Amino acid sequence: MKNNDLIKLNHVIKTFGKTRALDNVSFSIPENSIFGLLGPNGSGKSTLMRILSGLIINWKGEIFFKNKNVTLNQKYFLQQCGFLIENPTFYEYLSAHQNLSLLARISNCSPNSIDKVLADVNLIEDAHRKVGDYSYGMKQRLGIAQAILHDPDILFLDEPNNGLDPLGIKEMNKTILGLHKKGKTICVSTHILNDVEELCSDIIILKEGKLILNISMEDLLDKSRVIVIKGKDARLIEKYLTQSNTCKLISLEHEKLVIKTNLDIHSISQLLPKKISVRSIAKEPNLTDLFK
Description:
By secondary structure, the chain is of the alpha/beta class. 32% of the residues lie in helices and 30% in strands.
């Protein structure tokens, strides 16, 4: 693990029957980042979240948290994590404050933290309203308050904006950014591209259980230096370009290669032997291009 990596996954595999939901997935989550798990429905995002939360136990590979193997230190790991997986449920006839008070007693958390976490998710003024009167977005934010009641090191949010209206999304994103400013590492799964561009410092893209991209948003958005090359010899193209030390591989999938370079398209063409089949070379993929 790098010094600033909080979590590292090595070759994680999960199968359901004959379907491989996660196929040899490896990546790291930097400390103090907002890390995006991006992919279409069915890409493996929720499966990954369920593995991390302990809801799925039969999987292959390794996961490390602060250099400790999660499988061997499951209790310690879960104590340091907060989770919002799918829709949270509460006693709707009780207030938000009463719901969190019950949770605090069950989980041995200090009741003094209740007002703080409600303020963190912008619900302090509605703390004594019945949860049954809350909007869907308010319930989602209350779910985050519940997840951070024990002051975890990292917060995992599975599709937190799913089903929210524009105002709800705005409030949720404001909450996530606010928690990050207060020192939380946050891992967000989503299929909404705008969320990623607004929130995340680092992202991966999953597609049919495979990791197809792992990059910082800073590198991705440095569009003047990113080139997409398509051709049936993509792996051979990657070999020629990366050995020149002028190109850095961003992703390689089937017949599509994405690189970061200071070279222009003509110079890249000159590095490749004429025998190599190149269908197209183009500048500046955006996140939508990579998501497809």
